Amino acid sequence: MTSNSVRTPTGMSYLDTYGIIHTSYNEGMEETLAEAQASVRAALPLFGGTRHPVLVDLRALKSQTRDARSFYGSPEVTRNTTALALLVSSRVSMVIANFFISVTKSAVPSRMFTDEAAAVDWLKGYLV
Questions:
Q1: What's the pTM?
Q2: Most buried one in 20, 45, 62, 98, CB count within 10 A?
Q3: 5-124 CATH
Q4: Contact 35, 66 (CB under 8 A)
Q5: How far is CA 118 from CA 10, 19, 49, 80, in A?
Q6: Stretch 8-16: mean pLDDT, rounded?
Q7: Mind listing the pLDDT tens digit for each residue in 49-61?
Q8: Collapsing DSSP states into helix, strand and coil, what is residue 30?
Q9: Under DSSP, is residue 63 helix (H, G, I), strand (E, B) or coil?
């Protein structure tokens, strides 16, 4: 792991060469509020005190509590984010992503993708 990456309780986050934060979950993860909070705290150094677009890969996520989903939409989390792309492949992930997008609609631009390259291209428009 480099200084541009961090292992979190739920998976892994890293800052790519464009300035986009990528977050992925451990396979079969069932995320609680406490795990979500710990993951955000662990990933904060990647932001370096500035705002970044974020790509969240939900494909390995099995479930997430309502409190965890609400936390990700809170000002505490979104104040560091310029835009959010959610990468999905399953119906469960689509439900989680659609809920998250509806909660955070006014906070940051958010969009769901099934193609990672398309998500990265979209996020490039939100680099500061």
A1: 0.88
A2: 20
A3: 3.40.50.10600
A4: no
A5: 24, 16, 27, 22
A6: 94
A7: 999 999 999 999 9
A8: strand
A9: strand
What is 56-106 written as a DSSP string? EE-TTEEEE-HHHHHHHTSHHHHTTEEEEEEE--SHHHHHHHHHHHHHHTT
> What is the enclosing helix (H) or strand (E) of 124?
helix 116-124
- Measuring CA to CA, how many Å separate 49 from each of 41, 43, 94, 112? 13, 12, 31, 26
Token pair belonging to 54: 């974020």
CA dist 128 and 89 (Å) reads: 29
Model confidence band, residue 100 (pLDDT cutoffs 50, 70, 90): low
- Residue 107 pLDDT exceeds 90: no
Amino acid (one-letter) located at 59: R
Residue pair 112/98 in contact by the 8 Å Cβ criterion: yes
- The closest alpha carbon to 46, from 10, 3, 1, 108, belongs to 3
What tokens were used for 15? Answer: 């800052």
pLDDT beyond 80 at 104: no
Residue 27: per-residue pLDDT: 96
- Give the pair of three-digit tokens for residue 115: 């193609």
